[in-house]
Write a structure and sequence with these properties.
The chain is an alpha/beta fold and 627 residues long. It has a domain of 84 residues. It has 16 helices and 19 strands. The strands form five sheets. Strands 3-1-4-6-5-14-19-13-7-8-9 form an eleven-stranded mixed β-sheet, sandwiched between helices. The chain has a two-stranded antiparallel sheet with strand order 2-12. Strands 10-11 form a two-stranded antiparallel sheet. The protein is globular, with a radius of gyration of 25 Å. The relative contact order is 0.15.
Length: 627
């Protein structure tokens, strides 16, 4: 060590790097490891940067000047994998702080904002990754972009990412890799990591096959404590929601014709909608609908039951859901989230016009009175739940996903930083970056909107939103309950084993380019938030590629003050294999055995994954046994 180096540097220097750890394993076990004790022997992993790793810089993608830029101990998932023979090879680039957690509002304002999809995967410390299928395009619709790229491009065998609302499904979709995203929170995340929204944050496993991901899920289970992590309160899940049998055992199913005969799978058509005049979504939505029918229905023999939407033309050859998601919402919103009906839009006007027309004048918010009908709001809820009034036209699974920002990012960051400092204090070292104020004082941000938001977070003092307004924490808990009940009503009354949906109808966007006008700055459509907001297990499988896209473009706003995104009519041809899209399979907690069987059968029957041509594997001359 150089003269004057802090003593902690010597402790860091003694930790083996990936090659040294591999050599240690080779020397100890050679070609005959005990795979019962070391099921991950020699498997090379990356981790999204927020996961604490005791031998690597860990800053959640931020450019933050910690006294000690690596933590004193591993995240519990990192520890489990190390103990079972894994090689922890690298930290994966991600959007800093998992998407930067929004802006709680306050006196700090950005001087400028970058108007593109570039920022949703960018890190101030590590930069912006590229898509291995087209390096001019985004690697993700979510923040775990480096996890998806590192698996797809054969840099690692498996990666653990984190998802708030798109952050592992997006990377898996954009990079054509498989994903298991267990329900909230079989796997710990917040116990040793900075998240973005503690009510949604959870860990996901990305691998090239669903069988590989399932083996990792089994390996993450401690033989004595299971998946429980006392530092993550969300891991207090009912024990009945965790399978008693190995997950990997349920992913060993062939894709033989008829292998899903007797299974009933609900098709979420709301994920495949094409708006009038829209072209950008047509290639992927058309391909996904055909794929579901051809492989899941015709080849594998599952009975398909489709939901309905005014924008979807019914397929008469498939069963129709009854009830579908809209019908379930009309029965359940009055019970589990009646306040939703009183919601106001951005302009301060009621979101549900039919509700206003039916009820007598009623206060929706302080000083905001609406209503032109005769019913009391509570009697309207009875009529709605009993099907005696038509539901609002926009009471659907997209509209209800929008939530008020919760103030708990301020709690979570301070909790994480204080724990990290305490861990070092117990080892005799000092870390003085301990709260939001010191984090901001010692950080740089690639975007001024990030700087302003973090300064506003620093000044948050109350876990509640302003009194008299919507409450972010309450909405998250109520919405989770509502969505889980909606799913179960649809599945039970239609006798469904699982649901399948298209992850996103949009292809990977151009880095630095315009975003989808309907998807917003993050290129996400609200209905895709259903699974994350409900905290349900989701399994994603590559489903094919599209070779035609319609990239949105920038245009000057009418007042000439800013650039806005507008749709394009010009098709762009993408070289083979094209840009990937994926199907997502979903079921309730405790039914992962059935979910994995369906997903694995689809993967085996379809074989849609094609490695990115520029990153297709280890050259033959470097493989084991080559001269």
């Amino acid at each position: 060590m150089p003269p004057g180096a802090p003593p902690v540097c010597e402790a860091f220097r003694r930790l083996p790097d990936a090659l040294e750890r591999a050599a240690e394993l080779d020397a100890t076990y050679g070609r005959n490891p005990d795979l019962e004790k070391l099921p991950m022997y020699g498997v090379v992993f990356s981790f999204k940067d927020p996961f604490d790793t005791k031998d690597m810089r860990t800053t959640a993608g931020g450019d933050a000047a910690y006294d000690i830029d690596f933590p004193a101990r591993d995240h519990v998932l990192v520890e489990q994998l190390r103990n079972k023979g894994a090689i922890i090879f690298a930290k994966a680039v991600c959007t800093e702080y998992n998407g930067r957690a929004g802006d709680p509002g306050g006196r700090h304002k950005p001087e400028k904002v970058l108007p593109s999809v570039l920022g949703y995967q960018r890190s101030s410390w590590a930069g912006n990754p590229a898509n291995p299928y087209d390096t001019t395009r985004a690697a993700s619709l979510g923040s775990s972009s480096g996890s998806g790229v590192s698996v797809s491009a054969n840099l690692v065998m498996v990666s653990l990412g984190e998802e708030t609302r798109a952050s592992t499904r997006g990377p898996a979709n954009h990079n054509a890799v498989a994903l298991i995203l267990p329900h909230k929170a079989v796997l710990s995340f917040n116990g040793g990591a900075i998240g973005a929204d503690i009510y949604c944050d959870r860990a996901g496993i990305l691998a090239r096959t669903i069988g590989d991901a399932a083996k990792v899920l089994d390996a993450l289970k401690d033989p004595e404590t299971g998946y429980y992590d006392p530092r993550d309160p969300y891991t207090t899940v009912p024990r009945s929601s965790v399978l008693a049998t190995p997950y990997a055992g349920h992913s060993r199913i062939s894709g033989a014709a008829g292998s899903l005969a007797g299974m009933r799978i609900g098709v979420v058509r709301e994920s495949m909608l094409v708006r009038p005049g829209e072209k950008a979504t047509v290639p992927t939505c058309t391909a996904a609908a055909a794929e579901i029918k051809a492989i899941l229905g015709e080849r594998l023999g599952a009975t398909l039951v489709e939901s309905s939407d005014p924008l979807w033309e019914r397929d008469p050859s498939l069963e129709a859901m009854n009830p579908d998601f809209r019908q379930a919402l009309t029965r359940l919103v009055p019970v589990f989230m009646p306040g939703l009906l009183f919601r106001l839009g951005p302009e301060g006007q009621p979101l549900f016009k039919e509700f206003v027309a039916a009820i007598r004048p009623t206060e929706f918010a302080p000083g905001k009175v609406f209503g032109t009908g005769t019913l009391t709001p509570i009697d309207y809820c009875v009529e709605l739940a009993e099907g005696r009034v038509a539901p609002p036209a926009n009471l659907d699974i997209a509209t209800i996903q929008e939530q008020e920002l919760a103030m708990m990012f301020r709690f979570h960051v301070n909790q994480y930083l204080s724990r990290r400092a305490t861990d070092w204090w117990r080892r005799g070292f000092s870390e003085t970056l301990v709260d939001f104020a010191s984090l901001n004082a010692r950080s740089k941000f690639w975007g001024d909107d990030g700087r302003a938001a973090f300064k506003n977070w620093e000044e948050v003092t109350d876990p509640r939103n302003p009194l008299g307004g919507r409450q972010g924490v309450d909405e998250r808990i109520m919405l989770r309950e509502l969505l889980r009940r909606v799913d179960m009503m649809v599945m039970l009354e239609n006798r469904l084993d699982a649901l399948v949906r298209l992850h996103t109808p949009l292809p990977p966007a151009k880095i630095g380019g315009a975003h989808d006008p309907l998807g917003g700055r993050n290129n996400l459509r609200l209905e895709s938030f259903y699974g994350p907001n409900a905290g349900l297990t989701e399994v994603l499988i590559p489903a094919g590629f599209v070779t035609t896209v319609y990239d949105p473009v920038f245009a000057l706003s009418a007042d000439g003050t800013r650039y806005i995104s507008v749709p394009a009519d010009t098709p762009i041809t993408i070289p083979e294999p094209g840009l990937p899209f994926s199907l997502v399979f979903r079921a309730e907690p405790g039914r992962e055995d059935v979910l994995l069987q369906i997903a694995a059968a689809y993967e085996a029957a379809s074989k849609r994954r094609i490695p990115p041509p520029a990153f297709s594997g280890v050259p033959a001359e470097l493989r084991e046994g080559a001269p």
